[in-house]
Amino acid sequence: MGLFNFAVRELLKRRYSGIEQFMLHPHDVQDRVFHSLIQQASKTEWGKRYDYRTIRSYDEYTKRVPVSTYEQLYPFIEKILLGNQNVLWPSRITWFSKSSGTTNDRSKYIPVSPEALKICHYNGGKDLLSLYFQNVPKSQIFKGKNIGIGGTYKRNHMHADSYMGDVSAVILANLPFWAQFARTPSLKVALMSDWEEKIEKHARLTLGEDVASISGVPTWTIILMERILEITGKQNMLEVWPDFEVFFHGAVAFTPYRELFKTFFPSDQVHYVETYNASEGFFGIQDQLGTGDMLLMLDYGIFYEFIPIDELEKENPLILPLSGVELGKSYAMVISTNSGLWRYSIGDTVRFVSVAPYRIRITGRTKHFINVFGEELVIENAETALSKACEKTEALVTNFTAGPIFFGADKQKGGHEWIIEFSKQPNDMDRFTHLLDEELRAINSDYDAKRYKDMALLMPKVHIVPQDTFYQWMKRRGKLGGQNKVPRLSNSREFLDDLLKDL
After folding, report:
1. pTM above the 0.85 mark?
2. What is the C-alpha end-to-end distance of the chain, expressed in Å?
3. Would 224 be classed as within a structural domain?
4. CA 196 – CA 208 distance, rounded (Å)
5. Which residues make beta-bridge pairs with 415?
6. ω before 26 within 30° of 0 (cis)?
7. Is 470 part of a structural domain of the chain?
C-alpha cells in the first residue's frame, strides 16, 4: 500500500503542474483546445457538413456552426446509437451517458469517446485528488477506502456492440486499475441496477471497512449513511469510520445539506469538496477548502462559450468565449467537446466569481427557475435562502421542491409553494416561513419588488412532508438512480401537484 500511495502521489504532482499552466494562461490553453477539436473532427460527417477543414479562427466557427440543443443534435447522435461511426467524432464510440434530465421524461444519450474518458473524466478524477492534496498535504485517504455509489449501465438496445448508462456507471465500468485498487465495495455491487438492493449491500459491506472518503451525490449518500446507522445503532458515522476524511460531492448543490452532514460527521477535520461532473463532461473542481467556488477546468478537451442570461430568449443572443465573460455575471454554458458535442447548450447556468483564475458557481438550469411573475428566482437564490432559514431555526433539510401559485379566477394573488422534507424540523415553522421569504427578498431584488405590500406575490406557502416522501415519489416515477435528481424549481405546478396528490 505504501508503494501504491507513493506512485499515485507522484502522478498527482505532475497533474498539478498542468493545472498551474492553464490557471496562468487560460486563453492560450482554450485556443489550443479549440484548434485541436476542429482539426480532429475535420473528416467526420459533421466536420464535412460545416467544412471544418477551412476553419481558421473562432469567428469563422461561430458564423458557420449553430448553437445546438440536444433535440437539434439528436439526428446525428441517433446515427451513432445505431452503430454508425465518424459522425460527430472520429474515434469509435461504444459508450453513451444516459441522462433523463429534470425538465422532461425523455432520456438523453450523450456519446462518450475514449478521449473523453481519458482526457476529461479520468484527468478530472486525478486533478480532484491533486487539488485536495495541495489543500491537505497530510491527507491519509489512501490508507483507507473510497466509496463511489455508481449508477447502472446496460447494452444499447439500438445496437448491441455499445453500452449506455449513468455517467458514474460509464466511468466505473472503465476505471483504470489504480482507481479500483482503493475503492469499496466491488464494482459488481456498485453497478447493481436495483437501487434499494444496492444501498442495502453498500451499507452492509462497507460498515466494517476503513472508509476514508466518499464520492457521490448528497441525497444517495444520506440514504446510505442513515441505513448504516440504523444497522449499527451508532450515533454518527465517525463511530463507524473513525478515519473518515472527505466527501467529494456533485450533481446537486451542497448548501441545503451541509448542516445535515455535520450531524453525520461532527468534526471540523472532515472536508467537503464540490465537483461539476456531468454527462457531457467534467467541468469544475473546488480548489479551495471552505468555499463553493470551482475552478473551471480548461484542458480537458472542452471548448467553452457563454450566453449572458438576459440574452437567452433573444433570437440571436450574444455568445462569448471565455475571454469575454465578466465577474459576477451569470451565463448559460455552451460547450464543444472531444466526444463531438458542437456548440452544445447543456442547460446549466454559472456565475463567475473569479476571472484570474476562472472560478464559477452553478446558479441553476436554463429551464429550472420560477419566473411566472417576473421574479426570476433561480436555484442558487432558493438554496441560499433555504439554508439561512434553516440555520436560524435549527432545522435540517433533506429535500425540497418549489413552484408557482397562479393568479386565480377569484382574484387570488400569486405566490410560491414549497414542499420540504426535513430530517430536523424548524423550532418555529411560522418563523421559518417568514425567514425564507425575508432571505429571498434580500438576495433577489425582482422577488422583493413583487412581494412589496403583497401586490403581486403573497408570502410563500410551505408544506412539511414526512421523511422518505421524495424517495418514494422518485421511485413511483421510475426516477431512482444517480442521474435522476429532484427538480428544485419549476415554472409550472407539474411536480407540486404530483407530490401533493399523495399527501
Report:
1. no
2. 52
3. yes
4. 20
5. 405
6. no
7. yes
For the chain, the domain total comes to 2
DSSP string, 45-112: HHHHHTTGGG--SHHHHHHHS--B-HHHHHHHHHHHHTT--SSSSSSPP-EEEEE--SSSS--EEEEE
The CATH number covering residue 263 comes to 3.40.50
Say if residues 335 and 116 touch (Cβ distance below 8 Å): no
Q: What is the DSSP letter of 460?
A: P
Is residue 267 located within the same domain as residue 377?
Answer: no
| Phi/psi-derived region of residue 247, left when phi > 0, alpha when psi is between -120 and 50, beta in every other case | beta
The three grid cell numbers given for residue 159, joined into one nine-digit string: 445496437
The residue range of the domain holding 212 is 116-285
Model pLDDT for residues 213-251, shown as the tens digit of each residue: 999 888 788 889 989 999 999 999 999 999 999 999 987
pLDDT in tens, 422-446: 999 999 999 999 999 999 999 887 7
Check the CA dihedral 367-371-374-377 and report its sign.
negative
Same domain, 126 and 258: yes
- Asked which of 237, 268, 285 is the last residue of a domain, the reply is 285
Q: Identify the residue whose cell numbers are 447522435.
A: 77
Say if residue 137 is in the same domain as residue 231: yes
Asked if 383 and 363 touch (Cβ cutoff 8 Å), the reply is no
Per-residue burial over 191-209, b if 16 or more Cβ lie within 10 Å, else e, is bbeebeebbbbbbeebbee
Place of cell 454508425: 84
Do the domain assignments include residue 330?
no
The strand ranges marked E within 226-367 are: 246-249, 271-278, 281-285, 294-296, 302-308, 320-321, 330-337, 344-355, 358-365
CATH code where residue 404 lies: 3.30.300
**Secondary structure of 399-459 in the HEC alphabet?**
EEEEEEECCCCCCCCEEEEEEEEEEECCCCHHHHHHHHHHHHHHHCHHHHHHHHHHCCECC
d(CA 210, CA 353): 37
Is 500 strand, coil or helix? helix
Determine, yes or no, domain membership for 184: yes
Domain boundary among 233, 253, 285: 285
